[in-house]
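Hi Y.,

Following your request, here is the sequence exactly as I used it, all 203 residues.
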Amino acid sequence: MAAAAPKHFLQISDFSLEEHEYLIGRTRWIKERFKRYEIYQPLRDRTLAMVFEKASTRTRVSFEAGMNQLGGIAINLNRGDTQLSRGEPIEDVARVISRMVDVVMIRTFEQAIIERFAVHSRVPVINGLTNEYHPCQILADISTYMEHRGSTRGKTIAWVGDSNNDCSTWLQAAAIFDFTVHVSTPPGYEFDSARADEIAGGR
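Below is the corresponding structure, written out as tokens. Let me know if you'd prefer a different format.
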């Protein structure tokens, strides 16, 4: 019997509203236990590989601390630490790394890179950031909002800045969490309106 394909988190739209709500609720439960200094380590003997083609202090520390707090370990791999720096195809790197760890987080450039990696990975792949999307950041923002102010349903989110990966992910999130996004960008950094409508489902 063939093993089930792993569930990846490459865009915020990869999860349904129900899956996101469960994840946020579970996160809150774990956070409350952590505040009370109660040990909860469901990831004991599990390993996360963090592949950084783009360096980031906050991403590394948050993922590494999270894995440690949940009982697992994290391995930090910069581009120079892998065969990627020597021209090995991303597909081969995915096959090798995913044989040795339980989950992979990648912070890279084009979305196509992480999608190709995920196709050939035996384990779940998390998008730590690409040029197009930043799902962990926006999910953290939404979780924080819900913790302090309740549901985002029917609310209006304002995005002020360039039309970057965060903005694209907010637009995706609007269609899932049922809120509206107002986007304000400076001249020369506008979001293509047709693509914005497609991503946000008209929201």
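Helices lie at 17-35, 57-69, 90-98, 111-119, 135-149, 165-177, 193-200.

Thanks again,
Q.
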